[in-house]
Every structure is written in structure tokens, then in C-alpha cells.
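Appendix B. One record, verbatim.
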Amino acid sequence: MAQLTQRIKEGYEEGGTGRLTQAFVNRVTKFVSLYLYSRKKARLLEWSLTGPVPEVDPPGIGIEIRDLREEEIPCFKDIVRAKKLELFRERLAEGKICLVAWHEGEVAWFGWVAMGPEYEPIFRVMLNLKEDEGYLLDAFTNPKYRGKNLHTYMSARRLERLQRMGARRAFGIAAVENLPSRKAHGKGGCVETREVSCINILGIRFHLWKDLPEKELKSGQP
């Protein structure tokens, strides 16, 4: 019995040390990325809206699609942070539109659209779009509804909305490592045209853009 107790104690101490070490590594990594050096890469996605939006198969669930109303914002409290709820209110006040896919009264997916110049908050880059160009921003699929073709289908609905608003082209940004998002957008007809590196050195942030080589220009094949 004493030997078993000792083994349990040793195992706990070993696990505790491991957790402590991992927590320390995580904090150091976060400190380095925030204050010393970090580099993120993303692809600029582009859609032409001068013709019909590509047909996309509907998701495997029944959904109701409608524009977000301010009184519905509390319905998002379990899937986004409180700070983002305030951002939603600010966007609605600015005239931005959020399409929401509801399933049995629950938020299954949401995504925003905007016209003209737009600031991309995740990569902290300003996109100087023209008046007839739109932007797809801040889309999110509720984890329980992923794998149902919902994101691709709803992105097509966003493109249609921008088209009705007068946009002739649409843009979006996706992290290079976010292959599921890039593939989903590719299925909806986007082409990756440029790559942006978001660099932070000692708190100084800047962006480097480059055009993708012709052989890398593609649709739906990251």
C-alpha cells in the first residue's frame, strides 16, 4: 500500500512539473510573439462578381437565413466573447451587414459583408478597396455544425448580397495554415492572388505583400 501511495505521489509530482513547464513555455512563447518577434502569413482571396455566383450545394441541415438585428446579438454570447458583442453593435451602427444561418433557433453560422475600404482586425491590415469592391469578413461556423458544407454555402450567399449592393469584385483574407477555410472558399469560386506577411519585431508591426507566381494562382487547391 505504501509503495502504491508513493508511486501515485511521484506520478502526480511528475505530472504537476510537466504542467508547470508547459505553462511556462506557453507564457514565454506568448511573450515572444507579442513583444519580440512574430510572423503570420495570409492569402488574399478574390472573387469576380461580374457574372453569376457559382452554384453551391446546400448544407445538410435546414437553416433560416436573415440579417442580424441588434436585439439578436445576445444569442451569440455562448460562441463569441463579450468584447466582440460590442463590436457587432458598432458594425451594425456603421451599416455593415451580418448574415446569420439559424438552425432551430440556434446560431449555426455568421459572416459579415462590407463595401469599400476595410480594416482586417485579425491581421491588422487596411485593405484600400474601391467603392465597387466588397469584403467578406469575420465568418464563423458553430463547431457543432462544421462538416456540413455550411461555410461554403453561406459564403456564396454573402457574395450574392455584395453583388446586389453593387460590388463587381469581392475580397477576403485567410491564414496560410487555415486549409479548411481556403478550400471552402475555393469551392465557392475564389482565386488566391497575393500573400501578405504580418511581421512584429520588438512591437513594431508592418506588412509585406507579394504577388503569387502564376503557377500558384489557383482556386480551391491550397
